Amino acid sequence: MRIATYNVNGINARLPIVQRWLQETAPDVVCLQELKAPQEKFPLEAIEAAGYGALWHGQKSWNGVAILLKGGTPEETQRGLPGDDADEQSRYIEALIRGVRIGCLYLPNGNPAPGPKYDYKLSWIKRFQKYAAGLLKSGGPTVLCGDYNIIPTEKDAYRPERWVDDALFRPEVRAAYQEWLDAGWIDALRTLHPDETIYTFWDYFRGAFTRNAGLRIDHFLLSPDLKTRLKGAGVDRFVRGWEKSSDHGPVWIELKETGK
Questions:
Q1: Residue 19: exposed, middle, or buried by beta-carbon count in 10 A (0-12, 13-18, 19+)?
Q2: Which H/E stretch holds residue 30?
Q3: Which architecture characterizes domain 2-255 according to CATH?
């Protein structure tokens, strides 16, 4: 089973890109972030024409997450991150697919830091830590993927010294990421590619993509019981090079089916 995550930076603006990518790579499950579309403006008809069913959690102008399933409709298990009833930002959705719980998340950016947006990021992380701990305790294969807006280590950034004061690289958020790993979550890309230069985001400015001046901020965290099923992981870097593409590239993993 191939699972992909992709921050599309506007689902309707990038729809031709998404359609082309789905046709060329045909992942089984797709998690999308930053839809930038209200619930009623999600392009379901176009997604279904590409062979996918969908569930989505939209928001006008900002945020938004979705899960697509090739040849079927995902079974929703959670919409929104628990812990704050006043939080109206659409940043989490979850489904059960082929016995695997898949959470799609768009963690807040948090800039400028310090400030209210950074405070919100930290509070969201705390809620997510609590929820993720509950998922581990309840058991069952689980994938938590999406745009984490966290640069875990210096090797995950081109010229990391430039990011020292950024909300994506501040000590608190890097420590939170490490806490997930210490709790047992597996960083899929680093498990299979521990020393490689891997980026998932390249800014639109200063020729960042052509210089490969990127960041690794889109991640797959897997529950420990999926480690033996992990057989592949990578980035569809070529998609970032397409005209009018998102500033992120799709990231993917491949899991062995049970019994194989």
A1: middle
A2: strand 29-33
A3: 4-Layer Sandwich (3.60)
The H-assigned helical ranges of the chain are: 15-25, 44-49, 116-138, 171-183, 188-192, 237-240
Cα–Cα dist 119/110, whole Å: 7
Residue with the two structure tokens 């972030």: 33
Q: What are phi and psi of 65, to 5 degrees?
A: -135, 155
Integer CA distances (angstroms), 185 to 60, 97, 225, 226, in order:
32, 19, 10, 10
The mean pLDDT value for 203-214 works out to 96
- Could you tell me if 110 and 167 are in contact, meaning their C-beta atoms sit under 8 angstroms apart? yes
pLDDT tens per residue across span 226-253: 999 999 999 999 999 999 999 999 999 9
3-class secondary structure for 39-93?
A: HHHCCHHHHHHCCEEEEEECCCCCCCEEEEEECCCCEEEEECCCCCCCCCCCCEE
Whether 147 is catalytic: yes
Is-catalytic flag, 106? yes
Reported as type and span, the H/E element at residue 152 is: none
Q: Which of 6, 92, 106, 131 is catalytic?
A: 106
Residue type, 193: H
Could you tell me where the DSSP H helices lie in 149-259?
171-183, 188-192, 237-240
Kind of pairing, strands 230-235 and 186-187? unpaired
At residue 259, does pLDDT exceed 80?
A: no
Confidence of residue 258 (pLDDT cuts 50, 70, 90): confident
Q: Which residues contact 160 (CB under 8 A, 6 or more apart)?
A: 151, 154, 169
What span, in angstroms and rounded, lies between the C-alpha atoms of 55 and 24?
A: 22
